[in-house]
Amino acid sequence: MSHEDYYVKDDFTLVEKFDKDNVVVAKLDDLINWGRAGSPWFFQFGLACCAIEMMAAAGPRHDLERFGMMPRATPRQADVMIVAGTVTLKMADIVKRLFEQMADPKYVISMGSCSNSGGPYWQHGYHVLKGVDIVVPVDVYIPGCPPRPEALIQGILELQKKIKLDTPLRKKV
Amino acid sequence: MLDKIIDIINKKFKDSVLHNENSNYILIENPSNWKLIADYLIQNSNLKFDYLMSLSGYDLTNDKVGVAYNFYSTKLKHYLEVRIEIDSNVEIPSVAEIWRTANWHEREAYDLVGLKFSNHPDMKRILLPEDWDGHPLKKDYETPEFYNGMPVPKDKSYWE
Ligand code: SF4
Known about the structure:
Chain A is built from 6 helices and 7 strands, in the order H-E-E-H-E-H-E-E-H-E-H-E-H. By secondary structure, chain A is an alpha/beta fold. The model of chain A is unreliable at 1-10 (pLDDT under 50). By secondary structure, chain B is α/β, with parallel strands linked by helices. Chain B has helices at 2-12, 34-43, 102-113, and strands spanning 26-28, 51-61, 64-72, 79-87, 92-93, 117-118, 146-147, 150-151. The chains are: A alpha/beta, B alpha/beta. The structure holds iron/sulfur cluster (SF4). The site of iron/sulfur cluster (SF4) has 12 residues of chain A, from helix 5. Iron/sulfur cluster binds next to helix 5 of chain A.
């Protein structure tokens, strides 16, 4: 199955497709979602050991770029923030400010136990934020300490599913 | 080896270092001439402790604190541990000018255990935020409920 077929068959609800002339008729919502889900550029910053797995996932063996995920070193060009690692209280303010600097639409993936819930520091960590969802809204949580790159990739696929359910042109109810 | 080192130091600084038979470190209880001893440790041709491997602060409770210096001589290949144990309000002379390593290590000992170092070139917190209250590795430290509006302890109301 080619890349194009995947989207046409599974995700893109075509109203009509004409064999000649390369014309398709579809909802603009779906078209926008298709574009957004196909290239979620992620914000490249790592906070602790989980960042090593994120780098492994971005490397040639697991190759995040086949999902259109390109690392960007500035929040202004990024769509997805992968919080990979321990969010200390000192860093929490900065994470929040970076999230606010990202342009809409923006998504957050919380990677690893630390950013989900405080992880190994949940009991005695005087310096660790007990879950990054206290400061930023999280779309996908990935459990693990650290999650393997495969787990991160599944999280990204879940995020793509979530993006495709969005209705960017209609009013949110 | 340790006895020889202690002899050399005690010959120059009378009775300023103590040593217990069963321990492998030397103890200083009055840090007023610590800077001079430190200078001597690096300069004496039989000591030459040119490498400060580690500096750790510790809390002895009852208002006593301690700091341990681990030295190594890359030229003579011998080790030495020096400990200073004092009341918590006494200042320890900084050795950051002698071993550059000590600069950040002393800031860390101040940050986490609250040790005071005099004549340090840049004494401020190194790991925790500047506006943090207290020194968390002290035995009587209480974790705050909130920092900057963010709750610090884990919310266990879901399962407790
Ligand atoms: S979840 Fe585990 S691997 Fe990830 S940052 Fe925390 S301690 Fe490190």
